[in-house]
Write a structure and sequence with these properties.
alpha/beta; Arc Repressor Mutant, subunit A; D-Maltodextrin-Binding Protein, domain 2; ten-stranded mixed beta sheet; two-stranded antiparallel sheet; 11 helices; transcription cis-regulatory region binding; WH_DNA-bd_sf; DNA-binding
Length: about 325
C-alpha cells in the first residue's frame, strides 16, 4: 500500500514581500530597534516576525547580539533575493498605476549641489524608462532662488538640505550624511584628527555659490562658535573645489559621499568636524515638493526611485 507523502512547502509558501522589505530595512539600520521604527513596527513585533521567518525557513537569519545587525549566510541569500524581487514588484506596480490612471505630466527638478548629479542622473535615467510620458527637466539652483520657483509652480521638486517652513511645501527626507572638511595633505590641519571651528580662522573656505545661511558649515559649525574664516571663495563645480583644495588654496566642507571617490584616489584628505563626543557634523538631504503633488503617482514613484538610487550609488549615507 502506497503511503501518502507529506506536502512539501516551497519558499514562496513561507515568504511574503513584507519579510523581504524587513530584511532590507535591517540592512540599512544600526539596530533592530531602528529597523522596527523605520517599518512602523514595535520592537517586539519585529522580533516576532524574524522568529516566524526563521521557523518557517528552518535557518537563522541574523547573528544574535551583533550590533549593527549582521546576517548569516542564509540571511544574506535572502537579501540577494529581496534585491532581485522587490524592484520587479515596484516596476509592476508602476505599470499598473500608469495603465489605470493614464498619468502624464511634468517633473521639473532643481538641485542646490552639483554633487547630487552623482546619484540623481542614474535615478532620472531609471525613472524615464518607467514614466516615458513625464517631461523631466533638471537645473542647478545657484543662479536663482529655487524655493520661490517651487511655490510659483515653475519647479516641481527641489533637492535641498534647507527645511525652512513654507506653507504648502513638504520636505521628504532622502538620506542622512556627514559633512567632512576636505583639505590638502600639505595643510597643517592634516595633522589633526578632528577639526574645531577655531581651526578655520586662518583658512580660506571654498563653498558653493549659495547664501551662507543655507550652508551647514556656517549655521551649525562656525557661527555658533563666533568664528569667521580668513577668506571665502566659491565654485559651482565640486571637481573645481577639490582642485583648489588639492592645490592647498583652501579647504571645503563637503558631504562624505561627494568626497568618497577623491579620498579613495588620495586626491585630498578629509577630517571630521567637531570633537568626537559630538559625533561629527551631520545633515539630511530632502526633496521639497508642493503638498498637492505628493499624492501624484509619478511623484510618489520618483521619490521612491530617488531613495533607491541614493543607497545604490552613494557610500557613507544613512536611512532616515
Amino acid at each position: 500500500m502506497n503511503k501518502v507523502q507529506p506536502e512539501v512547502s516551497t519558499i514562496k509558501d513561507r515568504l511574503e514581500l513584507r519579510h523581504l522589505r524587513t530584511l532590507q530595512a535591517i540592512r540599512h539600520s544600526k539596530s533592530l530597534a531602528e529597523a522596527a521604527n523605520k517599518l512602523h513596527l514595535t520592537a517586539s513585533a519585529l522580533s516576532h516576525q524574524l522568529k516566524e521567518m526563521e521557523q518557517k525557513l528552518g535557518n537563522d537569519l541574523l547573528i544574535r547580539k551583533s550590533r549593527p545587525p549582521r546576517f548569516t549566510t542564509a540571511g544574506l541569500r535572502l537579501l540577494k533575493l529581496a534585491d532581485q524581487i522587490l524592484p520587479v514588484v515596484r516596476a509592476t506596480e508602476r505599470d499598473l498605476t500608469r495603465l489605470g490612471s493614464g498619468e502624464a505630466g511634468r517633473l521639473h527638478i532643481a538641485i542646490e549641489c552639483h554633487s547630487c548629479f552623482q546619484w540623481l542622473m542614474p535615478c532620472i535615467d531609471d525613472y524615464r524608462q518607467h514614466w516615458p510620458n513625464i517631461e523631466v527637466d533638471l537645473s542647478a539652483g545657484f543662479n536663482f532662488a529655487p524655493m520661490p520657483a517651487l511655490i510659483r509652480g515653475d519647479l516641481d521638486l527641489v533637492v535641498t538640505s534647507d527645511t525652512s517652513p513654507i506653507e504648502g511645501i513638504s520636505y521628504i527626507p532622502l538620506f542622512r550624511y556627514e559633512i567632512l572638511l576636505a583639505l590638502s595633505e600639505r595643510n597643517p590641519l592634516a595633522e589633526k584628527t578632528w577639526i574645531e571651528a577655531e581651526d578655520l580662522q586662518n583658512q580660506v573656505l571654498i563653498n558653493y555659490p549659495v547664501d551662507r545661511q543655507r550652508l551647514d558649515i556656517f549655521c551649525h559649525f562656525l557661527e555658533p562658535a563666533d568664528v569667521e574664516p580668513a577668506g571665502l571663495r566659491t565654485s559651482e563645480l565640486t571637481v573645481m573645489m577639490l582642485q583648489l583644495v588639492a592645490s592647498n588654496r583652501g579647504v571645503a566642507a563637503l558631504p562624505n559621499w561627494a568626497l568618497d571617490e577623491y579620498l579613495q584616489r588620495g586626491y585630498v584628505q578629509a577630517r571630521r568636524l567637531k570633537p568626537p563626543e559630538k559625533n561629527g557634523l551631520w545633515s539630511v538631504l530632502y526633496a521639497a515638493v508642493r503638498e498637492e503633488q505628493l499624492t501624484s503617482p509619478f511623484m510618489k514613484d520618483f521619490l521612491l526611485t530617488a531613495k533607491d538610487s541614493c543607497f545604490e550609488n552613494l557610500n557613507g549615507i544613512e536611512m532616515i
